[in-house]
Amino acid sequence: MPLGEFDIIARYFSRPARRGDVLLGVGDDAALLTPPSGQALVAATDTLVEGRHFLPGTPAAALGHQALAVNLSDLAAMGAEPAWCLLSLSLPRADAAWLESFAEGLYALAGQHGVALVGGDTVAGPLVITIEVLGFVPPAEALRRSGARIGDAIYVSGTPGVAAAGLELLRAGRAGFDSQDPRVQRFLRAEPRLELGRALRGIATAAMDVSDGLLGDLRKLAAASGVGAVIELEALPLAGLQAAGTGAAAAERLVLHGGDDYELLFTVPPAAVARVASIATATRCPLHRIGTVTAGAEVACRRDGRPVTVAGKGHDHFA
Ligand code: ADP
Ligand code: MG
């Protein structure tokens, strides 16, 4: 028996929402949700297109994870707490095994962060996955890109570049999707930094998630804040990449230009720098001070105090 649209929804995407604020989830014309009073509703959406955002043959469970992870990362970057999501799925065929794994990957990450899938759309077409995520933040505490001030310290979380290294291994055919190489694992299952984002409320002056490369994304943050920035290349966290087997030059390139890690990039005023170490401990996430916000509009790099020009750039779909 071929699976129809309504079988797909009923079988794979109708798990009951375990949240009291979902009055009505999947099944009616729309979901009914009750946002907490006094909080701002935070909304973000992201689309994954086969061949564009993921390699053909990517395991369905990894796609279910990634499609939600990229959205949760946007909420993390706002300092928000996620609550609900909607899934729009365009599928070339109704493949039960694929749908089973995809739903498993999606619900596993959703459950980890208490997010309920409350609706969506299911159509036939090329493989395209769109998720919209909704959450809350106290309006005055939302982390924006625009608040960086001259003299602020610039930080990046975790191990940027590791996922991009995994993607390069897959692209080059040097690893398969079932590889246990930590770089490949990280690429397939990036963890959105939600706890860190919330911990940075009231401390970070500006924040964003690194999805298109650290250097390019820092340019966006600096432009939004009307400031410049300098990155000290020797302060970049290369140890994780080098431990996984990536050479030093490649490691620096991957940290500066690699996407897909969904680490957070943020700025902290000098007076709050001492608190960053305790946030790193509390969230069990290493935080690396990599530079300083400057006057002007340029984002520059230095090595051991000397200006250097860095080649390459971040990702742009239309470039
Ligand atoms: P309508 O035709 O009224 O837009 P649909 O028939 O598209 O509704 O969807 C029926 C119900 O199933 C709706 O509640 C919708 O939100 C939900 N839904 C459809 N596709 C998905 C999906 N992929 N994941 C979760 N919920 C879905
Ligand atoms: Mg309807």
Topology:
Blueprint: H1 5-12, E1 22-24, E2 32-33, E3 40-49, H2 60-77, E4 81-91, H3 96-112, E5 116-124, E6 128-137, E7 153-157, H4 162-171, H5 182-188, H6 194-199, E8 206-210, H7 214-225, E9 228-232, H8 239-243, H9 248-257, E10 263-268, H10 273-283, E11 287-294, E12 299-303, E13 306-308
Parallel strand pairs: 4-5, 9-12
Antiparallel strand pairs: 1-2, 3-6, 4-6, 7-10, 7-11, 8-10, 9-11, 12-13
Helix pairs in contact: 2-3, 4-5
Bound molecules: adenosine-5'-diphosphate and magnesium ion (MG).
The site of adenosine-5'-diphosphate (ADP) has 13 residues, from strand 4 and strand 5.
What does it look like?
This protein is of the alpha+beta class and 319 residues long. The chain is 33% helix and 26% strand. It contains ten helices and 13 strands. It has helices at residues 5-12, 60-77, 96-112, 162-171, 182-188, 194-199, 214-225, 239-243, 248-257, 273-283; strands at 22-24, 32-33, 40-49, 81-91, 116-124, 128-137, 153-157, 206-210, 228-232, 263-268, 287-294, 299-303, 306-308. The longest helix is centred in the first third of the chain and has 18 residues, at 60-77. It is globular. Adenosine-5'-diphosphate is lined by residues 9, 13, 26-29, 87, 89, 117, 119-122.
